[in-house]
Each structure stands twice: as C-alpha cells, then as structure tokens.
Amino acid sequence: MLFRLFPHLVHHKCDNDHGYTFRRECRSTEIPHLFEHLIIELQAQAQPTEVLRGETQWNWRVDPRGRFYVFVDYENELLALGAIRLAERVIRALDRRDLEEVDTEKELERLREVARLGRELPGVPPPPVRDEPSVEEERTAWSSVPLFSDHG
Q1: Backbone angles phi, psi at 70, to 5 degrees
Q2: 12: left (phi over 0), alpha (psi -120 to 50) or beta
Q3: Cα-to-chain-centroid distance, residue 12
Q4: What's the average pLDDT block by block, 10 residues per block, for the chain (152 residues)?
Q5: What is the value of pTM for the model shown?
Q6: How many distinct helices (H) and strands (E) make up the chain?
Q7: Among residues 13, 17, 49, 69, which is most buried (max CB within 10 A)?
C-alpha cells in the first residue's frame, strides 16, 4: 500500500544488514524505519532538494524495548515538521488500512505551500549549507530527542 501511495519510494537507497533494496526491506522492517523514509520522501516531493539521508536506531539494552530514534536530514525546518506530522498520519492510516483518511494529493499540496512559506518567512533561517553537520555528525546531539517512539 505504501508503494502505491508513494511510488518514488522504490528508488530509495537503504543500508541494511542483508543488502536488500528498500522495497524488499519493507517486508519485514520496523515501522519507525518506514517513518524515516516517508519523511524524506514527503520532503523531496514538496521541495526540490539535495539528497536527504536518514537513520533509524535502537538499543534495547539501554532504552525500553520498542523505543526507536529516527534521524533525518532537512533543508527547510517548517517543511520537515510538516513532513513528520503527515508521515505520522499516513503510518496510522496504513496501520488501520484506512487510506481514504489521508488525501495525499491535497496534503502534498499543503506541504508545498509550507515549503514555500519556510523559504520566504522572515526570521526563519535559510537552508543549511552542505558543510553543516550531517545525520551522522548530529546523532550525538539529538540522541536524547526521539522523533518517533513506538512502545507497542
């Protein structure tokens, strides 16, 4: 269902233990991993961008079982926040098998407007320059701030 809604996801690269394509990895991956890729895809559809990366981590020896940490690159903070919220709604709708709940075309148009506003609003910092820290470099700084936590 996810690939029918977002066909470009088939082109996502995914580093995983088995070397699977993202489409193959989706058959048995964790929901927060899907969440990560969906946030990246939504941003890419709303605003042309450089390649965005993400990472999903967990360590259940340290954290409660079911806690995941999702990290994603972004160029437009407002767009990233909108993509996170929409990705949450899409994941919930997929889980309930109620995709009619989310009008993806309308929501993507709203994200495009958010992206435009994020580029134009005074006081909103411009997109980071590529020499800013990547997901890898910011992992330590954000390690205590999960974007998505699934204690199911």
Answers
A1: -110, 125
A2: beta
A3: 12
A4: 90 91 92 96 92 94 94 93 96 91 93 90 58 52 45 43
A5: 0.77
A6: 6, 2
A7: 69
